[in-house]
Amino acid sequence: MSKSSAARSRYNSLQDRIFDTLNIIFMLCLVVVTLYPFLNMLAVSLNDANDAVRGGIHVLPRMLTWENYEYVFGEATIFHSMFISGARAVIGTIVSVFCTAMLAYTVSRQEFVLKKFVTIAFIMTMYFSGGLIPNYLLIRDLGMLNTFEVYIIPGLIGVFNMIVIRSFIEGLPEGILESARIDGAGEFITFIRVVLPLTVPALATVSLFVAVGQWNSWFDVFLYNSSNIDLSTLQYELMKILQTTNTSNSSQSAADAFAGAQGGVTAVTPASIRATMTIVASVPIIIVYPFLQKYFVKGMTVGGVKG
């Protein structure tokens, strides 16, 4: 019997078929469990609000309508808050990843005398913090209340992200960096022209972490910019609607609060608006993730192998 025939025979054995079947069933169950909440939320957002109150909606809308999305995008603050969220996600990601990468390159150099001390000092911040009140007082004394900078500067360096990038840089061939220095490149030029292009997988991984964090963040808006509606973000607007929903005395009183202008007919409900805004807030990240997926897997693999 040839090697290929023996391999096919082993693969077609009963144990292999049972394993493959169970593996496929498990993965299908995992996909269903993962996707169902999102599909259910999408179905509720596309369903008539009054009909959705009856329940029984799973992954398909029972009465298809766009009224929920028309209501959400009809709000005066939505488009502006989406712009602020997008701006902080883009600017915050670029600035944070660049600064984090510079720090990671610095602490990855063996000739850096304070390498161990600086690394330990940053890692300590992952376990200890000054507390909410001292942090607020610091932001106030720095004059960053009611400013856009408060979204960027306090979270400029991510320690975990720094460790991921540092581990990737330490895996680069040292000869490449030495050749750049022989050609007369300084440390900054070496970092810009050599290190950054070679660390794209790690940078893409960290960029995804930072972008998702910036896009989903609302608590800093509540703390520092709640009185400035011009700096309100999409997630903060979503939080306010969820808070209104949770504090409603009854589903009927909440529905009355969202009553339409024509004849008092309820056009939307808190549950339908909550589902709609959740979908609106999730779509940008869902669109971006497939383009970064291959870099995300590679960057996390390298960052996890090297310490």
UniProtKB/TrEMBL annotation:
SUPFAM superfamilies: MetI-like. It comes from the Bacteria. It is a multi-pass membrane protein. Residues 82-292 form the ABC transmembrane type-1 domain. The chain crosses the membrane at residues 21-39, 78-105, 117-139, 151-169, 190-212, 273-292. Pfam families: BPD_transp_1. Keywords: Cell membrane, Membrane, Transmembrane, Transmembrane helix, Transport. The keyword Magnesium does not apply. Coiled coil: none annotated. InterPro entries: MetI-like (IPR000515), MetI-like_sf (IPR035906). One of its GO terms (cellular component) is plasma membrane. GO terms for biological process: transmembrane transport. It is found in: Cell membrane. Belongs to the binding-protein-dependent transport system permease family. PANTHER family: ABC TRANSPORTER PERMEASE PROTEIN MG189-RELATED-RELATED (PTHR43744), POLYGALACTURONAN_RHAMNOGALACTURONAN TRANSPORT SYSTEM PERMEASE PROTEIN YTCP (PTHR43744:SF9). This is Carbohydrate ABC transporter permease. It comes from Paenibacillus soyae.
